[in-house]
Amino acid sequence: MIWDKKEQLSREEYRSIQSERLQKTVQYAYERVPFYRRKMQELGLEPDDIKGLEDLEKLPVTSKEDLRHNYPFGLFAVPLEDVVRLHASSGTTGKPIVVGYTENDMETWTELVARMVTQAGVTRGDVAQICFGYGLFTGGFGLHYGLERVGATVIPASSGNTEKQLMLMEDFGTTVLVSTPSYALYLAEVAERIGLDPVKDLNVRLGLFGGEPWSESMRQEIESRWGMTATDNYGLSEIGGPGFAGECSCRCGMHISEDHFLVELVDPDTLKPLPPGSKGELLVTTLTKEAMPVIRYRTKDITRLFYEPCACGRTTVRMEKVTGRTDDMLIIRGVNVFPSQIEAVLMEVPGVSPFYQLVVEKDGYLDTLEVQVELVPEYFTDNYADLERLERLIEKQLYKVLSVTAKVKLLESGSIERTTGKAKRVIDKRPKLA
Ligand code: DLL
């Protein structure tokens, strides 16, 4: 089933809607957001210079740092009294980046998620259990309203408490699981441990997975352990959260709602457009956002775009599974983590040196993060209890900033390999995606 006929427009129709909405968005942002006005003025641009898609490249790009520098509401195009919802996600240092939604933005978001879950195969007969956190993260609330809109029975289970999640699944007859892909595998593992066979004892037939990168082999593993169809969906807080792109039952790329978003694929070094089919960084311009429009936002995610119509009948552009990032952002159990955030915490602790390393691994299906850091010689001690106390203290501080558990290991000065060039801060031992 197709939720909205706007998912089936011709390429010419999309181009014309996008041209018109781009002009409006640029005018709107120029008039209401000093940041965009300044950036355009620096380039000698007036809103009238943007007549349509052909002028897109003239516009400046926007980065996560721009959002961070305008913390918390500097990029809002409406007064706070018109904002009905706030969400936030990790910035590159201590403060998160903040996004706002007007009432109309909430309605658009709900419709976009309704399109996305419908294309994955959800219907009003489904019972959908949402295991994303309900909070500042856009995952929980984002999926919630779209699933309700299509008439599914929603279980707002939120994250954590894995055995209880399984109990609800069994007792409520959950048919759709909404979570990160790694949590789906962890759930299966716990189910087996407590004597439940997800294929025989549970009724889950469809998974809506997103929030972190995952491979095709992980998809196969999830499908065989659950006896379900596993679909991918992608989004980011800066452009509104989930509902930006999702797979249909063909699972040949994630459809992007082009009447609401304009996408470009560029070379991350030159920011020049790449021909269709090449791998590059995804840039997104929102076309209908009222509270916080973003222009040419650098997602830092690597993907490919396909413009051929899909066998499902939708004509929107599709993006390939994300295979990497152009920056050093790590995603640990669905949570975005920047090495700079960790560094900032470490540097606050007396006795801790600037030599540190982050080791990311998999424990079963779950990501683990170990922060190895050297103590300056005067602070190092053989007293194990003292070291442990300091490790727990740093772990607590890290949790406050990252919202994800990290294990801290204090090392003697000189333990971490010195390099003559850039320090190798991250050792990611997780299997590569592509
Ligand atoms: O993760 C929004 C979301 C929630 C999407 C629930 C899907 C489902 P952020 O916390 O801002 O927003 O993180 C965004 O996560 O730039 C990607 O690097 C990564 N990411 C999100 N979904 C996928 C995916 C939400 N399906 C960042 N595949 C993005 C690969 C993903 N990476």
Write the layout of secondary structure elements.
Layout: H1 11-32, H2 34-42, H3 64-69, E1 85-89, E2 97-101, H4 103-120, E3 127-130, H5 138-149, E4 153-155, H6 162-172, E5 176-179, H7 181-193, H8 198-201, E6 206-210, H9 216-226, E7 229-236, E8 241-247, E9 254-256, E10 261-266, E11 280-286, E12 297-303, E13 305-306, E14 318-319, E15 324-325, E16 330-332, E17 335-337, H10 339-347, E18 352-363, E19 366-375, H11 384-402, E20 407-411, E21 426-428
Parallel strand pairs: 3-4, 3-5, 5-6, 6-7, 18-21, 19-20
Antiparallel strand pairs: 1-2, 7-8, 8-9, 9-14, 10-11, 11-12, 12-15, 13-14, 16-17, 18-19
Bound molecules: 5'-O-[hydroxy(phenylacetyl)phosphoryl]adenosine.
Number of structural units classed as domains: 2
The geometry reads as: globular
Given helix and strand content, the structural type is alpha/beta
Q: How large is the count of helical segments?
A: 11
N-to-C terminal Cα separation, in Å?
Answer: 32 Å
- The residue ranges in which pLDDT falls below 50 over 5 or more consecutive positions are none
Bound molecules: 5'-O-[hydroxy(phenylacetyl)phosphoryl]adenosine
CATH fold node name of the largest domain:
Rossmann fold
Mean pLDDT: 95
- What is the H level of CATH, i.e. the homologous superfamily of the largest domain? ANL, N-terminal domain
CA radius of gyration is: 23 Å
Which CATH architecture of the largest domain is right?
A: 3-Layer(aba) Sandwich
- Give the beta-strand count: 21
Q: What is the helix fraction of residues, given as a range?
A: 25-40%
